[in-house]
Amino acid sequence: MKRRLGYIFTMLIVLFGLTVINILIYAIINFRSERGILSVDDVSNLIVYSGDEYQVNPDCYKILDEKSAFAMIIDDSGNVIWEYKKPEDVPDKYGMKDVTTFSRWYLNDYPVKTWLRDEGILVIGRPKNSSWKYNIEFNMKGLNQMLYIFPVLLVIDLVILFFLPILITRKWIMNRENSRTEWIAGVSHDIRTPLSIVMGSVEPGSVVERQCQKIKNLIGNLNTENKLESGTGKWNTENIVVVSLLREIICDFINSYEEGYTFELDADEDLEEYTISADASLIRRMIDNLIINSIVHNEKGCNIVVSFKALKRGKALISISDDGEGADSEKIKGLNAKLKPEYLPEHGLGIRVVKQVARKYRYKIKFSSEKKEGFKSEIIVH
Fold first, then answer.
1. pLDDT tens, position by position, 54-103
2. What is the 3 state secondary structure string of the chain?
3. Residue 134 has what pLDDT?
């Protein structure tokens, strides 16, 4: 789930960054295009009216030609008294209504700009479909209020942009995890019934009974792993007397494995009343899995010692060690590595559940071994 949410956050950040970049690109393009817009006042300054004649600076024609524009001056009577490259479909005389209309919009579909002069109005037109013009009007009071509200709206938009997809995705993930949990629970229930019948009909301690016990433990680990990984499990918080729990676990293993394996508990007398706050079923499964790990990797049998020793600052050490085959350094390195988010476990489902429980209660766990010299698991509890 964390990886998925991290992916969503990354995509949102990328989306936000792309939006900012796009806005900057648009601003640059708009700025460059603004630089190319024809300035009507500059053109007007290049046209001088003197002695009933117009003296036009050559730069005026150059500017108009560069923009494919035409120009004309309309006097107070509405007559065109000067023009440059005026199209044929542009009239030579205008009434007040005509001037009022094209001064803001278009003149025969030519986008135009106007400039007031002493002798009349200068009109500069661009080719058809070269510019888009629209009249926009804002009430100043409303505009001023908008300037104050805009930052708030921007923050709200950003919050929605970031969190709404996350909430939707989280809901989708939770629904999927719940569906998976229900499916696993249903399959586990269907398997337990025939498994119990088989276990009740075979000889205790036999190969078949042990294999059935493995299947039963696998089902339990599968349910526990799924609940811990998805966060759908409901766990109790109770004061657990650790020594009493360890004794119960050892007794159960002694009753289940009569040949080839011995089980011993070595606990400090000062820790008889030592308690931890956790869910007893999770702590039991963690210890069970570590003992079963020693059994599974030593099919010819081994001696297993569960010890409980006091540490400083109110902490204690639970260790499960055997004198079996052990493991190589590469295997130990992998076991001590950080728990990976992938659902499929690299070193077995049992060890994955052990590390998940340790992570849940912030216990430190360490594995150590020498090839042919046994295996040890150590958990610091508090």
1. 999 999 999 899 889 999 999 989 999 999 999 999 999 998 888 887 87
2. CHHHHHHHHHHHHHHHHHHHHHHHHHHHHHHHHHHCCCCHHHHHHCEEEECCEEEECHHHHHHHHHCCCEEEEECCCCEEEEEECCCCCCCCECCHHHHHHHCCCEECCEEEEEEEECCEEEEEECCCCCCCCCCCCCCHHHHHHHHHHHHHHHHHHHHHHHHHHHHHHHHHHHHHHHHHHHHHHHHHHHHHHHHHHHHHHCCCCCHHHHHHHHHHHHHHHHHHHHHHHHCCCCCCCEEEEHHHHHHHHHHHHHHHCCCCEEEEEEECHHHCCCEEEECHHHHHHHHHHHHHHHHHCCCCCEEEEEEEEECCCCCEEEEEEECCCCCCHHHHHHHCCCCCCCCCCCCCHHHHHHHHHHHHCCCEEEEEECCCCCEEEEEEEC
3. 66
